[in-house]
Amino acid sequence: MISKLTDHKEAYVWIWLPGETQPVVAGRITQQRGAYVFNYGASYLERDDAIPIYDAELPLRRGLIEPAAGLAMAGCLRDGSPDAWGRRVIINRLMGVNAAETETGDIDELTYLLESGSDRIGALDFQHSAMEYVPRLKAEASYEELLEAAERIEQGVPLTPALDQALNHGTSIGGARPKALIDNGDHKTIAKFSSSTDIYSVVKAEFIAMKLAALCTLDVAPVSMIAAAGKDVLLIERFDRIQSAAGWQRRAMVSALTMLGLDEMMARYASYEDVAEIIRHRFTKPKKTLRELYGRIVFNILCGNTDDHARNHAAFWDGEMLTLTPAYDICPQGRTGNEATQAMLIKGENRMSTLHSCLAAAPDFLLNDTEVKSIIENQLATIASEWNGLCEEAKLTETDRKLFAGRQFLNSYCTEGLGLEHSALLEGFEDARAQLLRSRNG
């Protein structure tokens, strides 16, 4: 296959301002000496309703704005670029299924921005022109056709033009697993597909975890599950879109990775302590938000979601303040042993997936012992009481139920480090775990 690579020198950034259904051009990204610099357009700066794309990185001012030291591009712009799965689809289209890693390294960030779908997460899009907005539209496709397209990508098989256009609509979504954006006119969702490499039902594991998180009173994106071509498809409602009489509005967002001033190469330094500090100073409803985030950390540990990296946390941006988005991508990870670590640091240099880690971090979230124990105990009780019903709703096989209960969900390692002073928590955990194990053996 002949490469379709184009050497892009610039990209224009278009933004949906709060409450608006049509975008306006905000500025331009250009590549200079290995970095991507940004400058706002004069017409945008003159607008009364202009907001900074994210003022910690791109404040409203004239002239070139370089990314912070150590970054190749401002994080708030990079947030709009595709991650592993979207890049894989774009590589397939531009360079062919057999492209070598050395060849794919020739694809720069501007290409990924300009070749990915326009209905991307957040309120930005990237265009060749500053004068006319031309969205990269999707082709209509059924769930079965989208699933077929995803499987072809995984198998290294070329896509038909129609399937390529349909799957390209979802290239701007983050994450590594096969997925697509679904637009039913009055409803927008993200569809996550089973992968050919899955050794257990990853889709059902995420469905159960997301449902349990909501039942634990966490703010979570609503999910549902359907079958297509005999395989599971998880549907997640988009929370970055608002339907109005005039059309769809888009909500600006930034990832926790951007808030922390990090990129993928520095993600291992991402810390919940640092996020908590940002929440105290830059978020709406900081105390409520701190409790919410703390509850998510506890739940991630209890359900075995160790993929809680800083791109899997985000906040809405209204031009002045940040507001935590609903939780998403709560997906229990496979584990062969007991010991596990979270993707983000919890307290100091500690990232161990234990309730002891959570207890140590409580002061950073302005929570006392009574509040923390209440959060943990309520989650344990909810997981135990709702487990059977959700497993039935998900039509979980006996094999997967045995795999999930006590290994991914409520793994015994969660209580590592707890002492006699935590006897009530230990007892509550063991009771909840025993209920899951009984259901597994029943």
From TrEMBL:
Keywords, ordered alphabetically: Kinase, Transferase
Entry's Gene Ontology cellular component terms: cytosol
InterPro entries: HipA-like_C, HipA_N1, HipA_Ser/Thr_kinase
Domain HipA N-terminal subdomain: start-end pairs: 25-126
Domain HipA-like C-terminal, residue spans: 171-387
Record has Chaperone as a keyword: no
A GO molecular-function annotation: protein serine/threonine kinase activity
Pfam families attached to this UniProt entry: Couple_hipA, HipA_C
Family to which the UniProt record says this protein belongs: Belongs to the HipA Ser/Thr kinase family.
Protein name: Phosphatidylinositol kinase
Organism: Halovibrio variabilis
